[in-house]
Write a structure and sequence with these properties.
Largest sheet: 22 strands, antiparallel, barrel
Length: 951
């Protein structure tokens, strides 16, 4: 495999060298590069091009990428085309399986602003609350926009809150839609993963994907157009587990199956095994059908026959029979594997873009679209020997599924024209995203037999309406002054819709919801007396107490200027004032400059302040359940920022994140070599960053009045809670990095050669102390504000080094794409004995022992190769591969025995346990690769064929 990497790098380098040689053969060639297109982001000067800006702007031609690129969704196209951008699918992460978090410059998914045709795009309704990069954030769902509708992307890699408002701390992604007319284009793509890891590492094909894209445009009047894009896609799941090594069946399960074969359902005869009138019948059935278990020993059978009470029978049947029972049922351990890999997905999208004359001096425009995606992801397998498994319904256990219905709707309309010397653009943009959960192939283990197997678990919704009035004009002063100014009003709403009662309720054996007076003997149990949990397995629904509808509004004024002091020296400045109805006002500025040292060499630099308003989702998301302690109901879960629990525990109201950004770099063009180069370094400081805390818990034990631990107990009691998670402005961070892009484009005769080499290096770390409430900090729970796992997700869970080398060649009717992307190392938030010294290393942090020995998954090189052939001007066939060499991440750690940290001694040293305990990050062979972090996924080689047609 290493030799393959070396070969492919060599081939890529040869392409790059040939590119330069060919360019020098014919210096008279004039090629209009993408970088010379007038940009619409980063500068409100409509004549500015990407290589002439005071800040870095990448221009990515998506319409050409859609022909040769193996990637078809916008997140993955960007992940491979723009090194500063990172996005990967997650697995077994609830809703995050269906919407991929995306990040720019190593910052959070909610710290990059997305525009569609220059208008603010709404975010997703989903909060990423599970273990994945971007935990606690709310990003924009880029995959709701069909890539086939896009002409190009403009990626502004610099803070721009003073220009565009909240979220633009890392930068801005502007998605520009197609304007083609009098042409119907179509793309039909079919592919799948043909990998050594397919089908739980048995090889072959899985994850098949079929996609149809259509685009058509026509004229409106003399100067107008309307362009439509439709997209249909279906993909299957992938499976990357290995044989489940867990204990699966108990002796009771074996007898239960023999009875079921004879039409007797023993588990349906009791709700609470210690309170059933059917005890004698149950015992008799067990004794009768135990005779049919051929592998029981004489001693085991005798113990069963001599058991005349339920407790004695429980003792007699409490042993594992997995191997023998698998043979009896004709099953293998693979039948109990989880679905680890990409989720199933079906989607349909319809987008439109239009512009037209209203009068001779006024233009109208309208664009937007509708996107529906139906997803299906699975959770942890519920094994027959577990108390959460209703074996009366599922004798072999079950794999619960989260079915999602994600609907994304957007529409923008406006008018633009000129009043005297002032250009104006007045618009209204509406966007809405809903995420509804249906839990399938599952059960509420506390329900009476027969139980439901599908539940409406509720959903989330977010809507945003933005009104913009934008103006700009040119003033003949010095070498030209561009002045832009405007106002924005934004109205947002976030909703949580509760699920049906059975999706969240914990019932007693009579079918009533448990309360503080529910006795032990009416609580449902399994055969061994373990209490059954309530709610739909894998995702208990939102309760009526969680349901809400919250809104806010904001108003903003801005000015954005650019002055060409001389032909060589450009300076720009922007100011923005914004007021939010829920947390107040913010004022931000930006200064930038570019100086042309020569006609082909520019120096540029920028400084700005920025902000990100906490999202409504972060402020109001809540998902709680009720637990009874000593007959008293207490709440457990994630509490909203305005809850009583947050107030009592000292969690302050969320406020805006504030940032300071600095960047400097240069651009260079070498016309004779047809080469361009950009290099930029940056520093971003973010204060009061919003994070999702770990779980704070009520201390156990007895403490004297007035002590911090007693005060925390009283606070939890007053809040009616025992464990709580919150969103909080808990930390300050700094991010440093550099980015370089080398591009070369040339053609000789019928040969066209394009090469792009891009590199990004970044590092994020916390600075200063954790911001915590006194009541929690004094009680020793400060590390739960920003835990070691949270630190890893923020600082080390995405590649800090990433490089890509893209080479495309056009030779007569042939097209070739060769792309190498190197994804740097990442750190797993889990801990294990990595170095094999028998100890999980820990450090003393804030007076507590914190384990810090994490797996580090090394860098990987992934190669894409595609070949296309134009049979006619209107018909092209492309064959290709993503990850052609079938590269996988490093494998996860299986069972490892090691001593764990238990505390800190009086001298400040970590105390370790005297005996080792076992850590299994693979979860019984299910997570062969980490499910918490991944540079490029875990699916292996993807092969595809694509037909592009135009009419």
């Amino acid at each position: 495999m290493r030799k393959n990497y070396q070969k492919i790098i060599l081939i890529g380098a040869l392409f790059f060298v040939l590119d330069n040689v060919s360019a020098q053969v014919d210096d008279s060639l004039k090629i209009r590069t993408v970088e010379e297109v007038k940009i619409t982001v980063g500068s409100r000067n409509k004549s500015r091009v990407a290589t002439d800006t005071p800040v870095p702007v990448d221009v990515i031609n998506i319409s050409s990428q859609s022909v040769l690129s193996p990637q078809t969704d916008l997140n993955q196209i960007l992940n491979y085309a723009a090194p500063s951008f990172t996005s990967n699918s997650t697995t077994v992460a609830d809703g995050t399986d269906h919407i991929d978090p995306a990040q720019l410059r190593g910052l959070g998914p909610d710290q990059v602003l997305v525009l569609l045709n220059g208008k603010r795009r709404h975010t997703s309704s989903l909060v990423n609350i599970n273990g994945s990069p971007g935990r606690g954030s709310v990003g924009t769902d880029l995959n709701a926009i069909p890539a086939f509708a896009i002409e190009r992307l403009e990626v502004l890699r610099d803070g721009a809150s003073a220009q565009y408002g909240s979220d633009a701390i890392a930068g801005v992604i502007n998605v520009l839609m197609k304007k083609n007319t009098n042409k119907l284009t179509a793309a039909i793509t079919a592919g799948g993963f043909n990998s050594k890891g397919s089908n739980d590492h048995s090889g072959g094909w899985d994850g098949e994907k079929y996609q149809l894209d259509l685009n058509y445009g026509t004229n409106i009047g003399k100067n107008g157009f309307i362009n439509f894009t439709g997209s249909l896609m279906k993909r299957d799941d992938t499976r990357r587990a290995r044989a489940n090594t867990s204990n699966i069946f108990s002796a009771y399960n074996a007898i239960e199956q023999r009875a079921l074969n004879d039409g007797v359902n023993i588990s349906s005869l009791f709700g609470n095994i210690n309170n059933t009138p059917n005890s004698t019948q149950i015992l008799n059935y067990i004794k009768q059908y135990s005779q049919g278990v051929s592998y029981f020993t004489t001693q085991q059978l005798n113990q069963i026959q001599n058991a005349n009470t339920i407790s004695a029978m429980q003792a007699a049947l409490n042993f594992d029979v997995t191997s023998n029972e698998l043979n009896y049922r004709g099953l293998t351990r693979e039948n109990f594997n989880m679905r680890v890999g990409q989720s199933k997905l079906t989607s349909g999208q319809l987008f439109v873009n239009s512009e037209f004359d209203i009068t001779s001096s006024v233009r109208g425009y309208a664009f937007g679209g509708y996107s529906y995606r139906g997803g299906n992801a699975a959770g942890f397998y519920r094994l027959p020997n577990q108390n959460r498994t209703s074996t009366s319904i599922y004798p072999n256990g079950f794999l619960p599924e989260i079915a999602s219905d994600v609907i994304d709707l957007s529409f923008s309309a406006g008018v633009k024209g000129k009043l005297g010397n002032i250009n104006y653009d007045i618009s209204n943009t509406f966007g809405k995203n809903t995420f509804d959960y249906t839990i399938e192939n599952t059960a509420n283990a506390s329900m009476k037999y027969p139980s439901k197997t599908s539940f409406d678990a509720g959903g989330l919704g977010f809507s945003q309406n933005t009104i913009n009035a934008d103006f700009d004009t040119k003033v003949d002063w010095l070498q030209g002054l561009n002045i832009a100014f405007g106002a924005e009003a934004r109205f947002e709403n976030f909703k949580i819709k509760n699920g049906e009662e059975a999706s969240w309720a914990l019932y007693d054996i009579n079918g009533n919801i448990q309360t503080s007076t529910t006795g032990t003997l009416v609580k449902p149990t399994d055969f061994f007396g373990n209490n059954r949990p309530g709610g739909a397995q894998v995702f208990p629904g939102f309760r009526p107490e969680n349901a809400l509808s919250k809104g806010r509004n904001s108003m903003a004024l801005y000015t954005d200027t650019e002055l060409d002091i001389t032909d060589k020296w450009l300076v720009s400045a922007a100011l923005r004032y914004e007021n939010y109805s829920d947390f107040g006002s913010t004022f931000n500025y930006k200064l930038a400059t570019r100086y042309k040292i020569t006609d082909n060499f520019n120096f540029r630099a920028a400084h700005s302040t920025g902000f990100r308003a906490p999202s409504l989702q972060q402020m109001y998301f809540n998902s709680t359940s009720t637990q009874f302690v000593g007959g008293v109901p207490f709440e457990v879960g994630t509490f909203s920022n305005d809850s009583k629990a947050a107030e009592i525990l000292g969690i302050p109201q969320l406020k805006q994140e504030e940032s300071r950004s600095y960047s400097a770099g240069f651009t260079a063009k070498f016309p004779n070599a047809k080469l361009s180069l950009t290099f930029d370094g940056y520093y971003i400081r973010v204060n009061d960053r919003v994070v999702l805390t770990d779980q704070f818990s009520r201390p156990s034990g007895t403490y004297a009045d007035g002590t911090p631990l007693r005060n925390l107990q009283l606070a939890f009691d007053a809040a009616n809670a025992t464990a709580a998670t919150f969103f909080a402005n808990a930390v300050d961070t700094q991010t440093k990095g550099m980015e370089a892009v080398i591009s070369h484009k040339a053609s000789v005769g019928k040969i066209s050669l394009n090469s792009d080499l891009a590199v990004t290096v970044s590092k994020t770390n916390r600075v200063g102390d954790i911001h915590g409430s006194d009541v929690l900090v004094n009680a020793g729970q400060i590390n739960r504000y920003y835990s070691e796992a949270s630190r890893v997700y923020v600082e080390e869970a995405i590649p800090r080094f990433k490089a890509s080398l893209n080479n495309s060649v056009e030779v007569s009717k042939w097209s070739f794409l060769l792309r190498n992307v190197y994804f740097g190392k990442v750190t797993d938030p889990n801990v294990v004995d990595v170095n094999g010294d028998g100890i999980v290393q820990a450090q003393v942090i804030n007076g507590q022992a914190v384990e810090v020995e994490h797996p580090v998954w090394g860098g990987r090189l992934v190669t894409d190769l595609s070949v296309g052939y134009n049979f006619t001007k209107s018909f092209k066939l492309t064959l290709g591969a993503n990850n052609i060499f079938d590269v996988y991440p490093h494998e996860n750690y299986g069972p490892v025995a090691a001593k764990r940290a238990t505390g800190v001694d009086n001298s400040g040293n970590v105390i370790y346990s005297s005996t080792p305990s076992t850590i299994d990050l693979s979860n019984a062979n299910q997570f062969v690769y980490s499910r918490n972090v991944s540079q490029f996924g875990m699916n292996g080689r993807f092969l595809f064929a694509r037909i592009n047609m135009s009419f």
